[in-house]
Amino acid sequence: xxxxxxxxxxxxxxxxxxxxxxxxxxxxxxxxxxxxxxxxxxxxxxxxxxxxxxxxxxxxxxxxxxxxxxxxxxxxxxxxxxxxxxxxxxxxxxxxxxxxxxxxxxxxxxxxxxxxxxxxxxxxxxxxxxxxxxxxxxxxxxxxxxxxxxxxxxxxxxxxxxxxxxxxxxxxxxxxxxxxxxxxxxxxxxxxxxxxxxxxxxxxxxxxxxxxxxxxxxxxxxxxxxxxxxxxxxxxxxxxxxxxxxxxxxxxxxxxxxxxxxxxxxxxxxxxxxxxxxxxxxxxxxxxxxxxxxxxxxxxxxxxxxxxxxxxxxxxxxxxxxxxxxxxxxxxxxxxxxxxxxxxxxxxxxxxxxxxxxxxxxxxxxxxxxxxxxxxxxxxxxxxxxxxxxxxxxxxxxxxxxxxxxxxxxxxxxxxxxxxxxxxxxxxxxxxxxxxxxxxxxxxxxxxxxxxxxxxxxxxxxxxxxxxxxxxxxxxxxxxxxxxxxxxxxxxxxxxxxxxxxxxxxxxxxxxxxxxxxxxxxxxxxxxxxxxxxxxxxxxxxxxxxxxxxxxxxxxxxxxxxxxxxxxxxxxxxxxxxx
Length: 579
Description:
mainly beta, 5-stranded mixed β-sheet, 6 helices, 4-stranded antiparallel β-sheet, 31 strands, disordered N terminus, disordered C terminus
């Protein structure tokens, strides 16, 4: 392919003049009862999907807790020392939690137990809670979209033990996503005769299609032994009324996965179901391939196509092989990833190397190529002109490694890199529209250990990316005060160049029960939260509100101390670097 290398950094002269349009930012509604709200994808009609994080007042089941267990007592001692380091007195004891219902009445106790449950996430004898759920946006309405969760038998409401991800929405409002099955509390008698409380789930993941009517269609795995799994990552509505869905399915159990299961899951120290779940948490259990499902206009399955791998495993390769489809266009080309053999992964190296590329006409093509070789990466989106985008890990001389964006024009045999705001700036491209505009986010702090990210827009063929925050006003038009948003992620760009993304703003800090937090002196504390935003192009002139230094990338309006994006639980929901 012809190859073009874009500028790795942006000169100061480009920072405010790189893009002709300006944008108006509108905050989408945030979900009540959570800290962070995200938007992941949207269609041309403005119907959007997303995710929450930091659900307040999650229900904690204390009925089975052993308050003398060393993991709990040592964790309490650790937290007590943390309090002492900030001259704060801990306000609860384990006895208060056990006998005085402190989790319901004391926010510190609730936060402590939430931290403990999280730390014990791989322990099958501890309750499973997930502090986020899937949502849909329709105008100024936002609501939860339940996938597989059910009512709890131990407390009011849903179990809140499931993962839920909505990844793509088609033009008619059809949604593709995936979720896990809820955990159930059970009793198990081990080989010593001891009765144990355990939490079991029948399977790890199922892809799901949600019709515009709200009805759900589950995508079954090719290999369902011991549960199996599927994921639906993208959906397109074809002109004849049918649908294409790209994703992933288990196709077999790996040799190593089966051997470990047979050796460890004998129902002695833990139930077979808990042991199975423990083994399946690793990507080494199932062999999984990229899949393309076709559904008719009534959502009946027409065909499920196993897209395979970019290599043929050797007979002595016992580890799992995994490929995945992350996006599909109306032409049936699937963007994603697969292991391949490269000059660095010769016949003596197992499992190959995961690289970006596309599935077309029954085979996988790795792209883009770098110095006659292929780097690790994944393709995350593809438009109707057969241009795919993705991200690759690159070795940068004198700068270690970083993630570089790219696009590949399949029709015209062209590849190009999309560099960041400076040499070594990690880039994550997310979405491309049919006019060749690409959005994503890149690191903006050059000389810090925790580099913040800000959203960018880029046009195919340009020599630079543009920070979207530079296309926004310096002052809030309504109040005249400094603009309170910093756009951290751009996850979707429509054909009308409308951008959906995630911004941060400063608000009063809230604890895990949703109560406002104060410091030891009684003063209200503040924090940065993630909010969903839509940016609409408008007529107007760009404002200059940058510091004069060449490498100063912060807006003057961002003078408040907001957290690094690495410290916020921002999630790349639609086109993640992991399937």
